[in-house]
Specification:
215 residues, alpha/beta, Glucose Oxidase, domain 1, nine-stranded mixed beta sheet, globular, Putative 4-hydroxy-4-methyl-2-oxoglutarate aldolase, metal ion binding
Length: 215
């Protein structure tokens, strides 16, 4: 498969650090990433299930999934397949067979900057899958492509080994190097927001974020 450039995976990230983000919401993470653009325009196609893992990036030609097939031979348990397909939705890049292969190899989920097919299979599954659209048309398998290189999705750069978190509100990614400090900031924000909700229910919130009234 000379048309696909296969590059080594990024160093593994501590699984405990990855797991710690399982209870973090993407809005809270996004807020603490200075509300930068992130992976916008993608929506979940799966039934339920949190996406948490590390990025295994794939660059493909629009409508061509040869590099994705090659990536599935290299993916590690806990990797998230991040496919930069240029946002093209004229042909599906993955379907039920590739989903089955990915699951059998411990892949944590799909993030596809393009289209999928067999959406009913994804909709009845808890295997996380985010994409732009669904379409019946199949892909080309000619290449070129590359794995484990920096890729751009909607203007947002994802690097191999970045931490990936997805939920009902979308997908965010960030470097593993900032994960500990980011997690601390997220937990602080979520605690503060929980306190605000309590104030609202108790009738002690006056409309200013975090302000406690005496009434």
């Amino acid at each position: 498969m000379a048309n696909v450039s296969l590059n080594p995976s990024a160093p593994a990230v501590d699984p405990a650090l990855i797991a710690a983000f399982r209870d973090a919401t993407t809005p809270s993470i996004s807020d603490n990433l200075d509300r930068l653009p992130g992976l916008v325009g993608l929506r979940p196609f799966h039934r339920s299930g949190k996406l948490v893992g590390t990025a295994f990036t794939v660059q493909v030609r629009s409508g061509d999934n040869l590099a994705i097939h090659q990536a599935l031979n290299e993916v590690r348990p806990g990797d998230v397949l991040i496919v930069a397909g240029g946002g093209d939705t004229s042909r599906a890049l993955v379907g039920d067979i590739m989903k089955a292969i990915a699951e059998s190899r411990g892949c944590a989920g799909f993030v596809i900057d393009g289209a999928i097919r067999d959406s009913g299979v994804f909709a009845s599954s808890d295997f996380p899958c985010y994409a732009r659209a669904a379409i019946h048309r199949g892909p080309y398998k000619q290449g070129p492509g590359a794995t484990n290189i920096p890729v751009s999705i909607g203007g947002w750069t994802v690097n191999p080994g970045d931490v990936v978190v997805g939920d009902e509100d979308g997908v965010v990614t960030f470097p593993a190097s900032i994960a500990p400090s980011l997690l601390e900031a997220v937990r602080t924000q979520e605690q503060r927001e929980a306190e605000v909700i309590q104030m609202i229910h108790a009738g002690r919130y006056d409309g200013r974020y975090g302000k406690v009234t005496t009434g």
